[in-house]
Structure formats: structure tokens, C-alpha cells
What does this fold into?
Amino acid sequence: MSGPAIPDATTIAAAIAERRSSAREIVAGTLDRIARIDGWVGSFTDVLPERALARADAIDAAIGRGEAMGPLAGVPFAVKNLIDVAGLPTRAGSKINRDRPPAVRDGTVVRRLEAAGAILVGALNMGEYAYDFTGENVHDGDAHNPHALDHMTGGSSGGSGAALAAGLVPLTLGSDTNGSIRVPAAFCGCFGMKPTYGRISRAGSFPFVGSLDHLGPMARSVADLALAYDALQGPDPEDPVATTRAPEPAAASLEAGIDGLRIAVAGGYFARGGDPEAFAAVARVAEALGASRTVELPEAHRARAAAYLITAAEGATLHLDRLRTRPQDFDPAVRDRLIAGAMIPAPFVERAQRFRRWYRDAVLTLFDGVDVILAPATPCRAPKGGQTHFVIDGVTLPVRANIGLFTQPISFIGLPVVAVPVRLDAGLPLGVQVIAAPWREDLALRVARQLERDGICTAPVAELG
Amino acid sequence: MPETPPPFDPDAYAALAAPLLGLALDPAWLPPITANLRVLAAAADLVADFPLPDAVEAAPRFEA
It folds into this structure.
């Protein structure tokens, strides 16, 4: 018996605020379920019972004193293990980082969620140094897709997707450089948000590619995603690219519907090179939204190539000293790509950065005519664990390099995306990217909420045990 | 001068670039490294084939 899944964050927060439940009861139930379930799923690398229970008791005591509580009061959450957690070395999925001293304080995103009342219960498995789309990890063991344990979770935020789909926690944080929130959201059948580049502070997280790195929330409902997103916003002088814009809360407008929104489907590059199911998922979402227009993101295939080059070069620069001194301690698949990345001639990378400016300007003009663009999140459902190649459009391709082919051209220019889960049949879920103009996360969330309300996108907990 | 450059030889390139970067490569790592170099070179060609106006500058700090 796997026992009841942890309810969603909105339900928990309401139960605690109305004193129908205590934070200690919720956290104890969460820790118990993690202990019984996670051995199958492999989503957690660190569980923090003492910290979580102490925090729960503090929240219960504050409620007992009649103090006003934040919107996430008593909600358990967990974070990808590249985010600093006081007392833990920030391993970022690696063996090497375990030798670092423990973090002396939590990352900004952890502090902001806890300021809203949430309770950190642990850190989550991920692909080494976030250079991964599979959720597999040679050091900690692979995360397994709760909907089919012999399939990938997707990565690199694999534990963040698996912990949600297994009903272990209602809220997780991940990072997304080229698709690492949107891919596991799609494969694990949950909601994931990659906000606008710069919207959410990355201070106190281990970087990968500074000019592409984002942090963001993942959840099983759109309301939970919006609650977390609102709590996470705000300037942070400790992140050099964090926006100085004031927070723009989105939860209040979540039920505004889609009237007046101009919604289009991405054609061209985003309508080929995937399994038919990937496009069927987009078609189902588009039909539900009444979106019949198609727009084309120009030169998206080159945008993906440029993102690939910048990722390899910037990532290699970050890790060059470790590649010199401890190459044997890397996951070989990561090491070999980073070494090749270190060898890229500078003009190739500079050209990619110049192309990035051109592509950004070209894509932003599309938003003069549309508010939201729909595209597949992945070219297929979750591959089997350990699978190295798949066949798409009759062509055999390496899995690792191609899972992110629809996410890379979007994060390349920092557009906000909500990845929504779609179930076409009894098989594994798929995902659709709901893409908005920079700083318009609110619109993507409204569309996602409409799809959820209409029953098109749901994130049920997997049946385990 | 030759009209076209000789074809890219990723094995030779990796062997020569590694010392410049201070990297000691196990010979067993070379095949995957050179396979990755081929993929990166193809990506670079794809980007280079797009005719960018000279006035397009790289953002020193990317902003959405």
C-alpha cells in the first residue's frame, strides 16, 4: 500500500489556515510517504526531517498565537539539489561537489518560499551539473518515472518531476537552462514554469550556463504554480541578472479566462521532427482554446544550434578547472561533452550570441500579433530508462541530444513558458509549452488554468504499490 | 593559397587543443569527444550560414 498522496498546496494551506490540520501532521505524513515510496522512484537525495518538523512546529505555534500566515503556510516542498540548503554541500548532481563545504544559508528561492510559510523537506535528484535531459545520474542512481518506473523522468530536474508525480510533495523547484523544467514536467505529467529570464533570482544556486539559467516552480495544479511563482518573485542584488522590476503577482488573475487572448500554434520547425502524439497533444490543447492560427518562429533550427553551442562553451568554461583536475570524477557523458565544449573556437560562440540578438528581435515582433504561442514540450513520450537512441520521423537519433529540440529555441531568448500535461490515452503523458511574451507569465498561467478547468490538462498522482 | 580549407579533422584538433587548455585526455575518451566536436561543428556551420548584418551585436548581458 502506498497510502494517500499528499494533497495539493492550495488544499494544504487552506486546511492549516482553517485549523483542520496542523503543519506537523502534514509534514509527518509527507516524511512517512517519502520513506515508503521514494525507494521506487529515486527522487530525493536528502530528506530533512528534523528541520522540517521544527519548522512545522514553529508554524503551528504561530497559528496558535493568532499570527497572520503566508499563502503557503504549512506546505511541504523540495528543491533540485543545485539549490543551496543550509548544512548540505550543494552537489548539483555531481560527485565532485560533495567535497564542497556545506552551504551556510539557503538559496534565495528557498528563503522566499519559507517566508510565505512553506516547509522545506529535502533536496532532489538531478542530472549531473544540469547538463542532461534524461533524469539519469551515475552517482545517485536514476530517478524513475512514477507513471512507468522503467521509463525516464526527463531531466535535468528529474527528481523534481518524479516527486510530484509520485505524490510525495505538492511543490518542487527546478532549474531550466535548455528545457530542464519543461521536459520532466512533460514526461512526469505535471505543470512546470520556466519564467522570463531574470524574473526569479538564482542567487544561492549552482550555475550551469549563466546566460541561459532559470529557476522555476513545478506543481500538480496551476493554482499551486501561481502561488509559488508569486512568492518567488522580486529583485535580488545577489543575482546579477535578476530583474529590478517590482513583483507582478499572477494568482489574482488566474481565473480571468482567455477571452480576448490571441492564441496561435507554432508551425514550421515546431510541427515536424516529433512523434505524431507530440503534435496531437498540441492539437488537443489548441482545439480546446479555439486557437486556429499558426505562427512561425523564424530560424528556430538555428536558434537551437546556437543554444547548443553557447551551452557547451559556457558550461565548459565554468567547469574547466574541474575537467583539468578531476576528469575521472565526472559522469563520462557529461565530461566528454564539456571537454568538446571547451574546444569550441571563440568566433563560433560569438556568432551564436550575435544570432541570438537577431532571433530575439525577430521573435518578439510575433508578439505584436499574438499573446500566447503553443508548441510541443518534447518530441515524444518518456523513453525507457537507459535508452540511448529513438526513431523520429523514420530517423534514428541520440536521445540525450534531441529530447530538448522544442524547448531550446524558447529558453534561448528567455521567454516565459508554462508546460502543461496532456493525457491523450492510458499511456504516458505528454507536454505542451504555453509560451508568452517576456514578463507576461500571467497570460501563460491564465491559459494553463483554463485548460485545467476544462479538464484538458490534469496532473494526477501515479498509482504506485 | 588553397581555394578551400582542408576538411575538419576532429581527432587531430582534439589532440592539439587539449594541451592548450591544460587537459590530459585518456585515449578512451577521444571517440566521444570527437563525436561531440563533429556535432558542435555542424551546429556552428548552421549558425554561420545565416547572413547576419554586421550591425547586429552580441548582447554583453542577455536580457529577455
User: Anything to note?
Assistant: Chain B touches chain A through 36 residues (CB under 8 Å). Chain B is about 50% helix and 0% strand. The mean pLDDT of chain B is 92.
